Amino acid sequence: MSSVTLSVFDTELFHFSRILKQSLTSLGREALVRLDSRQACLCLGSRGQPDPRRWSSALRRAERVEVNPGPVESVRPMPAEDKGWIERAGHDADAWSAYEIRFASGVVDQVALLCDGDQGESLCEGVLRAIWSMLRESCLREFTGSRRAAADALLWTISHRFGAAVMVLDEHAHILQTNRVGADLLAERRLLRSVSDGLSAATPSDTRALRQAVSECVAGHSGASEVILLIDDPDGPGRLPLSLTRFDGGDGASLAVLVIPQRPDPKRIEKLAQIMGLTPAEARVASLMQLGLPNREAAFIAGIKEQTFNTYAKRVLSKLNVGCRAEAAQMLTWQAGLGLAS
Hints:
Elements: E1 3-7, E2 15-16, H1 18-24, E3 30-35, E4 42-45, H2 55-59, E5 62-66, E6 72-77, H3 84-88, E7 97-103, E8 108-114, H4 121-160, E9 164-169, E10 175-178, H5 180-188, E11 192-195, E12 198-201, H6 204-219, E13 226-232, E14 239-248, E15 254-261, H7 266-275, H8 280-290, H9 295-302, H10 306-320, H11 325-337
Parallel strand pairs: 2-4
Antiparallel strand pairs: 1-5, 3-4, 3-8, 6-7, 7-8, 9-10, 9-15, 11-12, 13-14, 14-15
Helix pairs in contact: 1-4, 7-8, 7-11, 8-9, 8-10, 8-11, 9-10
Domain HTH luxR-type: 275-332
Protein name: Helix-turn-helix transcriptional regulator
Pfam families: GerE (PF00196)
């Protein structure tokens, strides 16, 4: 039996299938399907969309759905006590005719039809027995094809149009993949360099901190979903925020995803900070915080006392609802890079 790895939605959410709508609505006005209901339970429907708010948790549940589980062994009506999944989908189960389709391999699918009353159970059972093997395979191909196309579009955007450098690293900080912006950044060999023993920063101390953070991120020791680092930028007056996020490949091989925003113009940062609710004075302080400058140097540039600068800095953190200056720098840099202040 061949199989395909799918990212599936929670059982109460049904992914729209055009093929299902075209094929089964001849038997009923609507159709709901649970493929491999006892294992992966991929849910398809003839109308409606999955809830985007639950995609992130559902997409983490990569399950194996049998593409060709063998011949259909039986098709039988489902008793009322087994139709709770229809109720959980937000429908009146009594109005639906539901069928359990069992394959010789042991795989069990469930199909529910909202009929007008003209179709008898024997007719539905006969049609499902005749077409279900081919129809379920077509639905799976449609589902995986659309998901693959969406994934390809996302990867293309990150690779060619995303304004930040994105690098995928192993536990030793070796670069496995990067987008175009990341490749250009590495080619400059100023902020970061790819060398034989891993990714290196402009200074030895930043290199050590970066590699330690990558190792802890991949191992899951950081205890946070995202780690923010500030490293020296040879082309800028201060330090640049970097983001590290752990990616679990699902097969025991975890990786780290490094994101490095392009440094925006300080005036752009000030404008953004005011859009985000800061006063002009606070926005000026925020722009200097974004540069990662020491307090004394930042206060001198701003033309205010260091104590005054610290007071403004606390207000900035409070208004931006962040816990530290690194988070504030990251927020302002990335929001400006996304064009909010244009």
